[in-house]
Amino acid sequence: MGSVMNGWRIENGRTLTERGWSEASLHVAGEALAEDDAGAPRRIDASGLLVLPGMVDVHGDAFERHLMPRPGVRFDTTLALRDTDRQLVANGITTAFHGVTVSWEPGLRSVEAARAFVAALMARRGSLSCDTRLHLRWETFALDAAAEVAEWLKLSPAPILALNDHTTGSVLKGTIARKIGQMAERAGIGREDYMALLDRVWGRRDDVPAAIAALARAARDNGNVLLAHDESSPQEREHFRALGAVASEFPMTQETAEAARLAGEDIILGAPNVVRGGSHNGALDAAQAIREGRCTVLTSDYHYPSPLYAAFKLAAGDMEALATYWPLVSRNPARVARLSDRGTLAPGRRADLLLVDASDMAHPEVVATMVAGRIVYARRALDHRATSVNPALASAAE
Predict the structure, then answer these.
(1) Which residues lie below 8 Å from residue 368, measured CB to CB, with a gap of 6+?
(2) Among positive and negative, which fits the CA dihedral 98, 300, 331, 254?
(3) DSSP state of 350
(4) At what angle do helices 208-222 and 234-243 cross, to 10 degrees?
(5) Which domains does the chain have, with CATH numbers?
(6) Could you tell me if 195 and 180 are in contact, meaning their C-beta atoms sit under 8 angstroms apart?
(7) Is the pLDDT at 386 greater than 60, yes or no?
(8) Helix or strand holding residue 222 (H, E)
(9) Which terminus, N or C, of the chain has the lesser number of Cβ atoms within 10 Å?
(10) pLDDT at residue number 280
(11) According to the model, what pLDDT value does residue 187 have?
């Protein structure tokens, strides 16, 4: 759903600005927020609604379920992208980095699958409602893919690169080794074949450090945001910091998270962790980490509705608390991604915003989503909320 005109005045809502809650009208001119309406012909009556900055999701891989909803059942990539796009904007995510795993595994997370997905996204991202980008999750044992990943780093907009090592855990750590059957199923091969492949990959472990250093250097030289995933100790955080990793993504221990915060770095955890009341795999409790200052960014991880629900759950019905927690899903992830044009509602910033019905604070509902000044989602008919100053003008939304 795209708007047909370039000016909006959003009035009668309660808007979260950089200075807190405001009852003042919010003005949109073209793709950006403006100081005044400059004669904007269209108005949205946001009575009873919250007007919130659009959410920025720096790590989400729920799109994989649209590609392969069941093991061995694969759907067209364009269909998956479009369906994912609708789910993103319906849940208030206005900027999304799709976490594309580039692994040594065959199947869903293979180099071939990543290659096809990258090509499809870059060809179609201009037609998507959400500003959709790449988060390249390079498995550090996928040595043969490193050169191709380095080329993808040069794409525009610049992808995020995350350094992932699930191979060592598969071999040495029982927490991941217990998932071997699931991994084999995802890869589309039998457990014994998967174990044999894992043995061959593990045999190249001495080549991994040099490959990590080279790809990290390529990311630094190209200006990509570099993240490190699943760091298990302060020493690992220090190591990846030296390579240029600017944030700790899903640190495994409180000590690791504390080391990142002491260095003034962002810590990224999953919003589903907050919504569900804890980690599903025994990792850090995100809500506790937030209360203790050891988490600054929440992502959708594997569930797109969770960022919205997590912020409201943390607020527990307190509007001032909501103003404190909302940056976890908007301003802070925008900072990590180096997107200084979004994440807050202020003149000159992109007009990425949500209208939210929070009459039930435990179950907030996104009523409408705007991306770059364009209404891309409306849960309810806007006829009674959006009007024209000139009755002859077209309706507020296509």
Answers:
(1) 44, 354, 355, 375, 377, 378, 379, 380, 382
(2) negative
(3) B
(4) 50
(5) 7-53+344-388 (2.30.40.10), 55-336 (3.20.20.140)
(6) yes
(7) no
(8) helix 208-222
(9) C
(10) 65
(11) 80
Q: How far does Cα 169 stand from its chain's mean position?
A: 25
Specify the pLDDT at position 306: 98
Question: 161 - beta bridge partners?
Answer: 136, 226
Q: Who has greater pLDDT, 1 or 149? A: 149
Question: 205-244, pLDDT tens digit by residue?
Answer: 999 999 999 999 999 999 999 999 999 999 999 999 999 9
Average pLDDT value for the chain: 90
Query: 265 near 240, Cβ under 8 Å?
Result: no
pTM: 0.91
Answer yes or no: are the C-beta atoms of 161 and 228 closer than 8 Å: no
Place of tokens 């020493």: 235
Question: For residues 339-373, b (16+ Cβ closer than 10 Å) or e, as one string?
Answer: beebbbbeeebbbbbbbbbbeeeeebebbbbbbbb
276 and 283 in contact (C-beta within 8 Å)?
no
